[in-house]
Amino acid sequence: MLAVMAGAMVVVSGGLYAGVFAIGRLAGRENLVRLSYLFYLFLAVSVLILARSLHFSGIWQGLTFVLLVGYLIAPQMIWRLCVGTHEHASGENPEGATNE
Fold this sequence. Notes:
mainly alpha; 100 residues; elongated
């Protein structure tokens, strides 16, 4: 039962992390971006509880670590990709960076 609950929290907190991060960046609200990192913390704790309840060992522990690092940077890289793509397509710069 613990594994099921932890798995559900992985999905919910991961979605909240990515969604709140994107909304915070889109609205230019740094407080929402910081709040998204709290949801990432919930995600990390949920993943660790899931891994422990399912008795991950060996390569699975390493894979769990890679998953956590990847999900930390994925929304940030996706945001940069979207900004760069839209900047190139429209000629505008939504974040105020220089076109270099």
